[in-house]
Amino acid sequence: MLNERIKAGDSDPRLPLQLGELVAAQVRERQEELAAALVRALIPLARDHSVRAPADGDLLNLSLLVPDDRRNAFVEAGADLARQADDIDFRFTGPLPPYSFV
After folding, report:
1. Which of 2, 51, 53, 67 has the greatest number of beta carbons closer than 10 A?
2. What global pTM score does this model have?
3. Among 10-14, 56-60, 64-68, 83-87, which range has the highest average pLDDT?
4. Which residues make Cβ contacts (< 8 Å) with residue 13, sequence separation at least 6?
5. How many CB atoms lie within 10 A of CB 45?
6. Exposed (0-12), middle (13-18) or buried (19+): which is 85, by Cβ within 10 Å?
7. What counts of helices (H) and strands (E) characterise the chain?
8. 100 touches 51 (CB < 8 A)
9. Is the bond into 13 cis (omega within 30 degrees of 0)?
10. Please, what sign has the CA dihedral across residues 43, 71, 30, 59?
């Protein structure tokens, strides 16, 4: 509705801001849903996990303690998720010392 009012020439200066806020809220909601789906998909492969605040521009900061016997399954799951999400870049690092879980 806001977009239609703007296109129709409504001169209310608050409309673009309101539309921007609405779009930003929807983007945040989509990102939160995607992050939750990623966590649900990966934590079954881990012995433990830790979710932290994402760094600037990141969607998710997730540390997973993956046992050696689940390593291949984890790598395959990560690759599958990366293929499904065309507009997201995945960065996996490790193995690292388990400092996130002490």
Report:
1. 2
2. 0.68
3. 64-68
4. none
5. 19
6. middle
7. 3, 2
8. no
9. no
10. positive
Q: Residue written as tokens 């990560």?
A: 78
Q: Distance between alpha carbon 37 and the CA centroid of its chain, in Å?
A: 8
Query: How would residue 73 be classed by pLDDT, with cut points 50, 70 and 90?
Result: very high
Residue 25 structure tokens: 């809220």
Buried b (16+ CB within 10 A) or exposed e, 46-82: beebeeeeeeeeebbebbbebeeeeeeebeebbeebe
Which residues is 13 bridged to in the sheet? none
10-47: pLDDT as tens digits: 788 888 888 889 899 998 898 888 888 888 889 999 99
